[in-house]
Amino acid sequence: MKKDSIKPTNVDEFLNETRSRGRLSFGLEELKQELQVSDKAVNQALYRAKARNKIAQVRNGFYVILSPEYTKQGMVPTTLFIDDLMKMLNKRYYVGLVSAAALYGAAHQQPMEYFVITQKPALRNIKNKKLKINFYVKKDWSETSIIKLKTDAGMMNVSSPELTALDLFYYQETISLNNTVTILKELAQEMKPSVLQKTGTEYPQVTAIQRLGYILDVELQNSKLATILQKVLNDKKVFPAALSNNIIKEGIFNEKWKLFINTKIEADI
User: I want to staple 126 with a disulfide (CB 3.0 to 4.6 A). Which of 85, 133, 207, 224 is the partner?
Assistant: First the structure.
């Protein structure tokens, strides 16, 4: 691909050129390569740009461009830079859990936190007054369960409704069981039996399949999706587990799903 012969000569030109290409973020090394000036000059220019509220720092070496509509907030929506950030870090990833559910219209309100699944080594969470991104580690996942979703600044990887549902039960510490069930009521409307069967077959965390199956079956009365997960479990080694991680393993044992029902569901369903 042929590059423009005119290169930016200062940070303002670089920001304008980056925005003209539909991007709202950039890495420090990218900026240095474009300007071809000393580290000291780059750092001074970045300091001035931050002081003028032209940019904001997301993490060390990565910045977002504050176009006029985001100047007051002092930050750009995570959806508009997460793909660039993970590419700079050279990490496989997908937006998941409550963040993915919200994109499918299955969260009652827009979550204040952002949830991203990636691989080891683990990334430090990003937490400040304007931004909170939680990174969770998973050994591996099938790319067939990842959807490329278009944003105003490019594309980003998002877990399918089926993978999102399973992850909500695997990463139980991210959201209460009651809220998970509330989300699942709407998320289930986006789930397809054939896709759920494939995703469940590839999903290595069996307990999450048991928990999702039980909630679909007993709490949401969705026999179509529950039956699919029963078939998936027939081909896996299933051991007794607890419905909730946060409570000791006791309560009535559900033989069908091999779960101790150790908590009462009080979701808005």
Answer: 133
**What confidence score (pLDDT) does residue 226 get?**
98
Neighbours of 225 (CB within 10 A): 23
Residue 21 burial (C-beta neighbours within 10 Å; 0-12, 13-18, 19+): exposed
pLDDT band at 266 (very low <50, low <70, confident <90, very high): confident
Angle subtended at Cα 61 by Cα 55 and Cα 67, rounded to the nearest 5 degrees: 20
Domains of the chain: 11-76 (1.10.10), 79-261 (3.30.460)
pLDDT at position 115: 96
Q: Which residue, among 98, 95, 111, has the nearest Cα to 187 in the 3D structure? A: 98
Q: Is the dihedral of CA 215, 220, 225, 227 positive or negative?
A: positive
The whole-number average pLDDT for the span 157-163 is: 98
Helix (H, G, I), strand (E, B) or coil at 44: helix
106 class by beta-carbon count within 10 Å (0-12 exposed, 13-18 middle, 19+ buried):
buried
Does 121 sit behind a cis peptide bond, omega within 30 degrees of 0 on the bond before it? yes
pLDDT at position 2? 43
Q: Which of 45, 77, 81 is nearest to 62 (CA)?
A: 81
CA distances from 47 to 19, 51, 55 (A): 19, 6, 9
| Element housing 133 (H / E) | strand 132-137
Q: How far apart are CA 256 and CA 262, in angstroms?
A: 15
- Is residue 248 pLDDT above 50, yes or no? yes
Q: What's 124's DSSP letter?
A: P
Tell whether the model's pLDDT for residue 184 goes beyond 90: yes
